[in-house]
Design a protein that fits this description.
Elements (H helix, E strand, L loop, with lengths): L6 E4 L6 E9 L3 H8 L12 E6 L5 E10 L10 E8 L1 H13 L3 E2 L4 H8 L5 H12 L3 H11 L2 H25 L11 H19 L4 H6 L1 E7 L5 H9 L17 E4 L7 E5 L9 H15 L3 E7 L9 H4 L7 E6 L17 E4 L8 H14 L13 H21 L5 H19 L5 H8 L7
Helix pairs in contact: 3-4, 4-5, 6-7, 6-14, 7-13, 13-14
Length: 452
């Protein structure tokens, strides 16, 4: 792999489509399009040009739109060419083969973005955000990726770095020039500054607990007695008739999944078999699976028929219920509520609803979203979610600063404190990519798709 190579790849999904985009990046890009269009002069930079692409045998390949970016002005920092052609896989293949015949090689996964990072066009957090933006499965994931791509994390790291350098300059002045008239050493100034930075770093590192939720979504399991309305709840939340609804107890024998519509976060609802004493062998097997699903859930919705006496929940379910991660839905609110429900699970959040015709669907989704955020199971819209990689580096920096603070407390060891501050600076550099670690970069960009 060399930045001097000219690379080519398609940047749109495989298969037939109205249009497709082929990217060429490297020093040969201007001459390739000039030759393919049969022009004496090069294309005007950043001006879309329509022409017939002809291969080296002068055979027409397709009518395309070409956009040329000059060295230093493109996404990658190199001469770059974007070719929009018709989305027939045969045309795409011929275009790429012709580019390779003219001196290109196939791009490796993530190589365009890697070039942008190595050219200093983006930092490492922005490079990672490119992949996150492509694979985002919810509005909240999109928002988080956009903020990273806009450089929000890089700006935070720059701010922490500047403040840390300020504290380090004070410490090193007393180390390097003890004989100079710079005043008596007073560690209180650096102590306060380092303490504030460490606190902020710990706070952002803690937000990585939402990283998996942002990427993969939440697993929400719906449990309860037969005929309480579990399947109706899943249908209402998903906006589909995914689950069969019947008055016959034990209709749901196995669990089924359905994505919940209308939430900013990707949430999958899992309808489970009703929990009760007795039942057939098959129904009992379904109950065992219900408990297995509840055990691995991020959140549980317990559906009860509020018009009947409260159900006697099995101990195997009660041990899985947690007031912080459970919502009790008191269904059939169109009927009088049974008086015994006043003392049922008193410390749990409860919502009254009628799932008969979906009239409460929007209110239920809205309340559910608010509960997930308030219980810190889902991030709020204002939260900047850091990845596990970011969190590890931020936490290491915070721990180094905590050690520096300890060395500045009596007895004062300024040299050791300065060493820990430099360690923290190195860790902050890892977040945005100010490091020389080829293996780490190879692993990171290998997860990108080809053409990105």
């Amino acid at each position: 792999m060399s930045d001097l190579d000219t690379i080519v790849a398609t940047s749109t999904p495989s298969g037939k489509s109205a249009l497709a985009v082929v990217r060429v990046d490297g020093p040969l890009a201007p001459s390739i399009i000039q030759s393919a269009f049969g022009r004496k002069n090069s294309l005007i930079i950043k001006q879309a040009t329509t022409g017939i692409w002809r291969d080296l045998k002068n055979e027409p390949v397709d009518q395309v739109v070409a956009l040329l970016w000059a060295n230093g002005k493109s996404f990658t920092g190199s001469d770059s060419l974007e070719i929009t052609c018709h989305g027939n896989p045969l045309i795409i293949r011929r275009l790429i083969e012709d580019c390779m015949a003219r001196g290109c090689r196939m791009a490796e996964p993530g190589e365009f973005t890697r070039r942008a990072f190595l050219a200093g066009k983006i930092d490492l957090t922005q490079a990672e955000a490119v992949a996150d933006l492509i694979h985002a499965s919810s509005e909240r994931a999109l928002s988080s990726a956009r903020r990273m791509l806009a450089g929000e994390m890089g700006k935070l790291v720059a701010g922490w770095t500047d403040r840390l350098l300020q504290a380090l300059a004070i410490l090193e002045a007393h180390i390097d020039f003890p004989e100079e008239d710079i005043g008596a050493e007073n560690p209180q100034g650096p102590l306060i500054l380092l303490g504030n930075i460490a606190s902020e770093l710990y706070g952002y590192a803690a937000s990585s607990k939402h990283d998996s939720v942002i990427r993969n979504g939440l697993k929400l399991v719906v449990v309860g007695s037969p005929n309480a309305g579990k399947s109706s709840l899943v249908n209402v939340l998903s906006g589909t008739q995914r689950a069969l609804v019947s008055d016959e107890p034990g209709t749901t024998r196995d669990f089924l999944e359905a994505p919940i519509a209308g939430l900013p976060l990707a949430v999958t609802a899992i309808d489970t078999a009703g929990l009760r004493d007795g039942g057939s062998v098959l129904e009992k097997a379904g109950m065992v699976r219900s408990l297995e699903q509840a055990e691995s859930a991020h959140f549980i919705i317990l559906v009860v028929d509020a018009s009947l006496p409260p159900p006697a929940l099995p101990d195997s379910l009660l041990v899985l219920l947690n007031p912080e991660k459970t919502l009790v839905v008191k269904n059939k609110s169109d009927l009088p509520e049974h008086p015994d429900f006043k003392n049922f699970l008193p410390h749990y959040i409860k919502i009254k609803t009628c799932l008969l015709d979906g009239r409460d669907a929007e209110n239920l989704r809205s309340r559910l979203g608010d509960i997930l955020v308030s219980r810190q199971l889902a991030p709020g819209a204002e939260d900047l979610i850091v990845s596990v990689r970011h969190a590890e580096a931020l936490k290491h920096a915070a721990e180094a600063l905590t050690e520096a603070i300890r060395h500045l407390s009596a007895p004062v060891h300024t040299e050791l404190a300065a060493t820990r501050c430099r360690e923290a600076l190195d860790s902050l550099g890892e977040v945005v990519g100010r490091i020389d670690n080829e293996r780490m970069l190879d692993k990171l960009f290998a997860s990108f798709c080809i053409g990105k």
